[in-house]
Amino acid sequence: MEIAALRRRVSGLEQSPTEFQVALKAAEEELQAEIARRLRAEEAGCEQARILHAALDEKTRAESALRATEQRLHAILDNTDRKQAEEQLRSEQRFLKQLIHAHERDRKLTAYEIHDGMLQYVSGALLHIESLTGERSPLAGKRRDALELAAHLLRRSIEEGRRVMSGLRPPILDEEGIVMAVEYLVVEQSEHGKLHIDFGHCVAIDRLDPLLEGTIFRIVQEALNNVRRHSRATRAEVRLIENEGRLRVEIHDDGVGFDPEKVPDDRFGVAGIRKRAALFGGRAHITSEPGRGTHIVVDLPLTPALKDEKRMRDEG
């Protein structure tokens, strides 16, 4: 009941004290009942609001838990994909190393066959002809000239055979190790043309794994071939530096240089150096620009590569 209605009821009564008190009491009771009703309504509204807020909080917590679960699920899937990709990469690396190992083994066998077969026969023939053209030889004139020409051609054949052996896999690499092999390569490359090559090293380890030694040798060989064929350089430097289980290979020349970004796709020299380094967990950095020469730095881990090679031989 409204307050105004109560007032009308009270004001419409006669002014006898008893009637007034009764009416006033009834009005007070109705007023208290109205206040109680409104309080209950407000409490009910507050309860509904509290329930609504609780429901919203619960929804927020559920959504947060769902997002966290989704994130964990994505992380698990990403981690699984990454592990699978890493395992696939390791498997491909092992396979490529096995191919290189087989390739180097075939090169080595071919080089030994040239050395122990063809070169021995050619050397024997040369000695025989030289014995016929010596000071006590009864031959003279055209016959002697023909034999001397044959001896010259045999010497050239022996030199060519040794060059082919060196290109395949020089015996010094297996007999003496990477330092002596690179020094031999530098001397051999310096003999061709006007290119002067300085060689220095700071390597304490005696021998490396044969496959890793072959890779280092190929990197230096490819770099020097590029210097000799393309750079028009007069000087070059080769450095081998061992430090804390890693080997740093540096090749520098004073040639015409080039733009690494403009190397044609069919030129495999620069790409081959990078690929060989990456296959053994290393990296190759090639710096060059026209007119400023070329600087190649290859950084290779020694211990991890050796462990991988041991595992590859065990699996093979």
List key phrases describing it.
316 residues; alpha+beta; Heat Shock Protein 90; 5-stranded mixed beta sheet; rod-shaped
Tell me, briefly, the overall form: rod-shaped
Based on secondary structure, the structural category is alpha+beta
C-alpha end-to-end distance = 99 Å
The CATH architecture assignment of the domain at 172-316 turns out to be 2-Layer Sandwich
CATH fourth-tier homologous superfamily of the domain at 172-316: Histidine kinase-like ATPase, C-terminal domain
User: Would you state the CATH class of the domain at 172-316?
Assistant: Alpha Beta
Count of runs of 4 or more consecutive helical residues: 8
Total E-strand runs: 5
Low-confidence stretches: 304-316
Give the topology string: H per helix, E per strand.
HHHHHEHEEHEEH
CATH topology (level 3) name of the domain at 172-316: Heat Shock Protein 90
Describe the structure.
The protein is α+β, with helices and mostly antiparallel strands. The chain has a domain at 172-316: Histidine kinase-like ATPase, C-terminal domain (Heat Shock Protein 90). It has helices at 3-11, 17-132, 141-168, 171-176, 178-190, 210-231, 268-279, 303-315; strands spanning 196-202, 235-243, 246-253, 283-288, 294-301. Strands 1-2-3-5-4 form a five-stranded mixed β-sheet. Strand 4 (283-288) and strand 5 form a beta hairpin. Helix 2 (17-132) packs antiparallel against helix 3 (141-168). The longest helix is centred in the N-terminal third of the chain and has 116 residues, at 17-132. 17% of the residues are buried. The model is unreliable at 304-316 (pLDDT under 50).
